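User: Modeling request: complex.
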Amino acid sequence: MSLVVQKFGGSSVADADSVKRVAKRIVEYRQAGHDVVVVVSAMGDSTDDLIDLAKEISPVPPARELDMLLTAGERISMAVLAMAIANLGYHAQSFTGSQAGVITDESFGKARIIDVTPGRIRSALDDGNVAIVAGFQGVSQTTKNITTLGRGGSDTTAVALAAALEADVCEIYSDVDGVFTADPRIVPSAHKINIISYEEMLEMAASGAKILMLRCVEYARRYRVPVHVRSSFSQHQGTWVTDAPIPEAFRTAQTEETEENMEQAIISGVAHDRSEAKLTIVGVPDIPGKAAEIFRTVARQEIDIDMIVQNISTRDPGRTDISFTLPMDDGAKAIEALEAGKASIGFDHIQYDDQIGKLSVVGAGMRSHPGVTATLFDALADAHINIDMISTSEIRISVVTSAELLDDAVRAAHTAYGLDADDTEAIVYGGTGR
Amino acid sequence: MSLVVQKFGGSSVADADSVKRVAKRIVEYRQAGHDVVVVVSAMGDSTDDLIDLAKEISPVPPARELDMLLTAGERISMAVLAMAIANLGYHAQSFTGSQAGVITDESFGKARIIDVTPGRIRSALDDGNVAIVAGFQGVSQTTKNITTLGRGGSDTTAVALAAALEADVCEIYSDVDGVFTADPRIVPSAHKINIISYEEMLEMAASGAKILMLRCVEYARRYRVPVHVRSSFSQHQGTWVTDAPIPEAFRTAQTEETEENMEQAIISGVAHDRSEAKLTIVGVPDIPGKAAEIFRTVARQEIDIDMIVQNISTRDPGRTDISFTLPMDDGAKAIEALEAGKASIGFDHIQYDDQIGKLSVVGAGMRSHPGVTATLFDALADAHINIDMISTSEIRISVVTSAELLDDAVRAAHTAYGLDADDTEAIVYGGTGR
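Assistant: Request completed. Predicted assembly structure:
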């Protein structure tokens, strides 16, 4: 007998009718002979409603209490989902994160799962129940306080439970059909990716693809959990995130065809991100230790830096300019911290630009196929799009453009890599190097 | 230092502004040097909203899941109350019933508290926090499932916590000023009772006074917890429920005057109840064991019987008529069970009347003052109100009238016992017996 962990997001359980529809879907899996653990988010916008309530009460609510408040949302959705399943004649029991053994650290609002001890879930399954688990929440190991994992945390709950229970698959249901080669709102010819490796999915998530949170993909890769990202509004196959063959029990004609064609995909997709800003520190003394001093100053504010570029200043040969990108929301905090350290660091001034966009091309195939980078630069040049910053990894190329040209850049790249076709075809690269 | 347990009902925390108002009130107690534990109900009608949601999902939701669902209400109110207190510069931490050590049996929806182990509450107090506890909920001793105590359960949570923590007082806040000598909507001259014994309060609660649930008063009496029933919308003294002197720290000019005058009160109040119906089984064979058979039949349906009257049938000397009152909601179930046993019991037919009302006069003074019963009967006769059934306890007289005359009966009794005056004066009874 196989074990499936299914995660349903807020839009899949937005109201009573949606909850009933999801319950039917779960029961179909029971009828097919699977054991099922369901991780559920709060209904619709209810988490936002709770945040609004908290803001009405206090401008800066204590983090412990905010987490206690927000966990009420999943408590509601999990209980009504269990009721809906019972109403179809199947046994179901709901469990809070704490009851399900989701043990976290004490970082309220963004807790990390440090252990999963799903003894009660196993017992519930052994007794013939569908086990419904509240996503997004856990209990701290040290103080036994209730914690939340932050936005997207329900996906991580699902993958962590799947890992701890050694489930055959973790299905992540949402209102989209899977992972796409680009955002279909920008690129109408974008198509669903049938299968993608953990590494590629990690790069996509890190590059702004919003369908799966980075932390969740990291967890899946570490524990080799096959993840199936799909829509709760259709029965279509979605996107499999895995490095292994698709498990026997979940193979279809479609997945078999996909697996045969896997070799062909060089570029998986084009991701984009509008949430970053670029900060340039102009006139930094070109002596050892200055870059370290700058990034230590920023890191102390718990700000994640993404791309970094350092240039010799053209105006003053003894000085350099250092640019980096960071989350737009952290811009003010970074400037404040750097200005406070201005005398010590000795720079001239700061330039800040939040009208930038980042485009990333991701694909494991670029390791073995030279010329991938040139294709991107050619495509952007043809579209008259200026490149501001560049960074690369083994399987990713990212460039920063102006915000207003980002959509054009995404479309140009998508076309250049042959992703517009319904059937992805191999693009043959010539030349040497990337 | 004294310890106060305060319970705020749903109407006291109906919205953000109410929550802030309650937070201020709590902080005043901290400023006065008290340790404070707060038990809070769900905000406004939110429990009803959750029940409506459950009904949308399933006509008969599983009890375990309904309890899981309903406990979300207090989770929200307790977290926002803690936030509001923090916003006033005081430390507060919220705790679920389970975290607060409220241990219950496994009867979902109407669980009974079997133990309270408030270790985390004590620690929170020791650390200088106001401890906010979710009312109405607990965790089952055997299965660790989440349970609810049923409506009015938050009062019981407060009294149970006060007992376990050996609090100096348990304050029950609601939207009324205290316990009244009669329902002010029926008797405009009804006035607040300043102090009442546990025994009298028990009889009042059992007779339909809705301000405190029977179970809560029983708990308070067993553990000798002084209860102060008062309004969250004013600073007035409410009603003290206690057999002991009012604790030193909470004495005011008003309470001292009350305690001096305590001797005078013979009748505490007039309670009424419209929720019962009368069932008469006509033509029961007048042989031993028949009454037992009838009440066993009803008890098997878990129906609580209140008053019982047995008459010799005037039509058939070998048969009797047995009448009893029961909750109106259980009427159909009782009739069904009795009709099923008709052949065995051998009665003639059943009469059912749900147009009845019950009036109860409660007062510890009636033990030592003869003539109390006669006063009631005289008053009702003068008002041309027919008495249908009578039952008495040591400190209570209850009569059943027709439903439409109940209000008149309550007013007549209230006047007859001299309760209309603002200052209750002793009524002197003559004659012998009651």
